[in-house]
Amino acid sequence: MLTFQHIQVIQDSQTQSIAQKSLVEAQLQMIYENNWFNIWVPKAYGGKEMDLMDGISLLEELAYWDGGLGWTVTLCAGANMFAGYIDPQLAGKVFSDPEVCFGGSGRVGGKAVWDGQKYILSGVWQFATGAPHLSHFTLNCHVYDGDIRRLGENGEPLVLSFFVPREYVLIHYDWDTFGLECTASHSFSVDEVPVDPRYGFQILPEKRQSNSPLYRLPFMPFAEVTLLANYVGMYRRFLDLVEKHFIGKSKDAQWNARFGRERFTLLDSLRVELAANWDNTQVLVADLWDKCVAGTLLAEDTVIQEIAALSRSMVKAIREQTVALYPWVGIAGAQRDNALNIVFRNIFTATQHSLLNA
């Protein structure tokens, strides 16, 4: 799904983005020109409104060429998807900006106190992917009426999501990981920021404001398959780079006689396993999407549980198989500017994400 020009920009920018610890201008311009942050946004707001299969194919390919770029597009596009849950008039205004980019945290890290007219937001949240280029920060809060916790329809304490323009947000530049450096997933905070209630929303199919099939889908399987696409892309790239390393080593007749058959056979088996699991995932995703289009998906549908189980088992296998292969790439794989090392670091930083960390 990427052109030669896209791949060239990605490859030419990767080293600079790692050093800068954020996406660089060439990468951002490519993303804006191709509307990749808006792949899940309704067409009514200027988005691409991709179906789920096409979207995860794009994310997997981006992650293959640069895991940090792919991760950033995935997380920011996932946050921009919230356009379908917010007030349509407000969404139309916010998403008229071609460089709109949402991002934030899925954890509950603050309070929203209702004063009768507005919510007053305060709190601290971690890991807002793409923080330097976000136009709005998304966050989750416990809701209070004065000092009293508000209860939801189910009788449990209510949590609402909000989006806040960046000028009201303090970014804490604390992202200093050994991989996915360019995602710039810094912490952030707000301190008694008043927001109109239209800036609050709930990520639930019954609360959707768009008729797109995507918004009939529970958020969890959507998050699982979009993140999984990143792991698959990065791991597929890792296997290709390991093979390239082995091909170079096999020119040594002694190495080839001792290790060649075993190691190339293992790589082949790992590729077959990955392809089979990814094919199975895509079958499940196609079934999930067809049910969303038809409006027949139920919360207890077994396809949701099957996606959850398969995505976690795949990430576990990817992590373990990367560990098994890494000692065989020698000092080359330990050099920070070596492509093998970059992909290795990205995979292991990504597997620390709590969602698919088995």
Structural class: alpha+beta
Write down the overall geometry. globular
Number of helices: 9
What's the alpha carbon Rg, rounded to whole Å?
Answer: 22 Å
Percentage of residues in strands: 15-25%
List the secondary-structure elements in sequence, H or E: HHHHHEEEEEEEEHHHH
Q: Tell me the CATH topology of the largest domain.
A: Butyryl-CoA Dehydrogenase, subunit A, domain 3
- Enumerate the spans where pLDDT stays under 50 for 5 or more consecutive residues: none
Task: Assign the CATH architecture of the largest domain.
Answer: Up-down Bundle
Number of strands: 8
CATH top level label of the largest domain: Mainly Alpha
Secondary-structure topology with pairs:
Layout: H1 4-20, H2 25-34, H3 52-65, H4 67-80, H5 88-94, E1 102-114, E2 119-128, E3 136-145, E4 148-149, E5 159-165, E6 170-172, E7 186-195, E8 200-201, H6 219-249, H7 253-294, H8 302-325, H9 339-350
What does this structure look like?
With 358 residues, the protein is of the alpha+beta class. The chain folds into 3 domains: 4-85, Butyryl-Coa Dehydrogenase, subunit A, domain 1 (Orthogonal Bundle); 101-207, Butyryl-CoA Dehydrogenase, subunit A, domain 2 (Beta Barrel); 217-350, Butyryl-CoA Dehydrogenase, subunit A, domain 3 (Up-down Bundle). It has helices at 4-20, 25-34, 52-65, 67-80, 88-94, 219-249, 253-294, 302-325, 339-350; strands at 102-114, 119-128, 136-145, 148-149, 159-165, 170-172, 186-195, 200-201. Strands 1, 2, 3, 4, 5, 6, 7 and 8 form an 8-stranded mixed sheet that branches. α3 runs antiparallel to α4 and α6 (219-249) packs antiparallel against α7. The longest helix is centred in the last third of the chain and has 42 residues, at 253-294. The model has no long low-confidence stretch (mean pLDDT 97).
